[in-house]
Amino acid sequence: MPLVIGGGVVGIVLIGLLVFLGIRAFSGGDDTPESQPTSGKSEGGDPSTSPSTSGGTGELGNATGQAKSVTDKLQGMGFGCSDLFNTGQGAHRGCFKLDGNSRSSEVIFQFKSDGTIIAARVATDDEDNNNNAQVAFGQALQAIGNDTFGGDSVTKIQDAVKTGQRSTEVGTNWGSFQLSNDGSGLQVSGHKNGEESLDLPDQTFDTTVAQMTTALKAKSYVCTSSCRKDVGKYGSQRVFVLGSRNQQINMVEFSASADSGSATKGAMTSAMNDAFGVLKGGNAAALKAYIQAHSDGKQYAAYVGGWKVEIDGGSTGDYGSQRVTIDHESFYA
Question: Ranges of Low complexity compositional bias (predicted)?
Fold first, then answer.
């Protein structure tokens, strides 16, 4: 972040100290996906409007009014909430709930400094049972919608789902929503009349796709669409990265599978260390610390260091698998 005020050297030292303390503060989680300190890139300017760290470990940034009420309700339902950014201008908050490898729910919303919600997305997915996805969708929609959009708006969206609409626009007094239903999941997104959603910070690592591929090949990975190394007779560890026009990386996925839990965990640790040994910039140290602190086999989803991080995995008999995804946030409402 460029510093344009006096005392630049002191500012850099203080920022470095804060990042160090933030990383040291990471600790293990519980059954609920856990919120973590979040930050995004900015290009300088007024610090009250620049995406910034939302608070200490496990804390959310400031929220009042609608935003606080919705957050409290969702946390009471088992969602873990965290901020992508939280500034004097407004905030972008995500509340996530993972229930097994096939079920997930998320409520993403943006709000002004007074807590007024101006944009939202509600999404649920259940690969095994669309009826369950609809039930979870209705619960999440009511948690954010009854106080924010109004009961009439919630009813109109629910009616569109009940009548089997696959993709449709739902107009309400609060604003216009786009609903989609692909058979295993539902999503609705919209913004308040007269308001525009907040811009998201650009988020990339300094490392390019080519640099990552070259480094992993030197560690005996075989790289095609992803970089892969065999583990035992049937398992593997894999690193997959994407970048805008194949340049700076803006998505990383580590995965591992093996015929035992200990072998899977060892392969996952190896893949992660190999990738983080190459990744530069983009709050890589904070991301690695978060992942290491949440390597207990449970599921987590949170914004960390300006990124969305998802951790999942499971085992069937003697077979185990783990996956971690670090991705830039995309939000359309």
Answer: 45-54
Q: Give the predicted TM-score (pTM) of the model.
A: 0.80
Residue 164 pLDDT grade (very low, low, confident, very high; cuts 50, 70, 90): confident
Q: Which residue has the higher pLDDT, 286 or 24?
A: 286
pLDDT for residue 128: 84
User: In the chain, what is the straight-line distance between the N-terminal and C-terminal CA atoms, in Å?
Assistant: 28
- Model pLDDT, residue 316: 58
Q: Three-state SS across 218-274?
A: CCCCEECCCEEEEECCCEEEEEEEEEHHHCEEEEEEEEEEECCHHHHHHHHHHHHHH
DSSP assignment string, 91-158: EEEEEEEE-STTEEEEEEEEEETT--EEEEEEEEEESS-HHHHHHHHHHHHHHHHHHHT-HHHHHHHH
Local structure of 208: helix, strand or coil: strand
- DSSP label at residue 206: S
* Amino acid identity for residue 57 in this structure: T
Q: Coil, helix or strand for 189?
A: strand
**What average pLDDT does the segment 73-80 reach?**
96
**Max Cα separation, the chain?**
62
- Give mean pLDDT, residues 56-60: 50
